[in-house]
Amino acid sequence: MSGTLRDLLSRFRALDNVELAALAGTDGLLIESTARAGVDVDAICAVASNGLAMAEALGREIKKGGTVQTVLEYDNGLILLEPVSDDAMLLVMTSDRDLLGRLRYMIQSHRSGFAAALAAI
């Protein structure tokens, strides 16, 4: 797997309370990840792909275009899903809802790096 891809994901995990940073196919299959111990990365990626598909379907239905980013906010954290290519998505899971702005900034800052790392695989 690409060292660059793992390095990019590790930047997210370096933040306190980021439990998972992963790149997965839009079909839910894991490409690369870094996560805290005990996180079922494969299961989360599989289910998260349904969340991205739902957001895409909603965007088409209401004629708002394709999904740029999906934020799922829960009582005890959030999940950010962002398409990186037609076939892959970035998934970041945190237990701190206050990280939303910082995570969105980081995702935007590293978007081209993820695309390049993915293309190199």
Describe the protein's architecture and organization.
With 121 residues, the chain is of the alpha+beta class. The protein has one domain (3-119): Beta-Lactamase (2-Layer Sandwich), CATH 3.30.450.30. It contains three helices and five strands, in the order αββαβββα. It has helices at 3-13, 41-61, 100-119, and strands at residues 18-25, 30-35, 70-74, 77-83, 88-94. A five-stranded antiparallel beta sheet has the order 2-1-5-4-3, with helices on both faces. Strand 4 and strand 5 form a beta hairpin. The longest helix is centred in the middle third of the chain and has 21 residues, at 41-61. The N and C termini lie close together (7 Å). The mean pLDDT is 93.
Summary keywords:
3 helices; 43% helix; five-stranded antiparallel beta sheet; 121 residues; alpha+beta; globular; Beta-Lactamase
| Structural shape | globular
Distance between the termini: 7 Å
Q: Largest sheet at a glance?
A: 5 strands, antiparallel
| Spatial strand sequence of the major β-sheet | 2-1-5-4-3
What is the helix fraction of residues, given as a range? Answer: 40-55%
Q: Find the structural class using helix and strand composition.
A: alpha+beta
At the first level of CATH, the class is: Alpha Beta
CATH superfamily: Dynein light chain 2a, cytoplasmic
- Average pLDDT rating: 93
Q: What number of domains?
A: 1
Strand content bin: 25-35%
Number of strands: 5
Work out the radius of gyration: 13 Å
> How is the quaternary structure best described?
single chain
CATH topology: Beta-Lactamase
Q: Any guess at the CATH architecture?
A: 2-Layer Sandwich
Low-confidence stretches: none
What sequence of helices (H) and strands (E) makes up the elements?
HEEHEEEH
Alpha plus pi helix count: 3
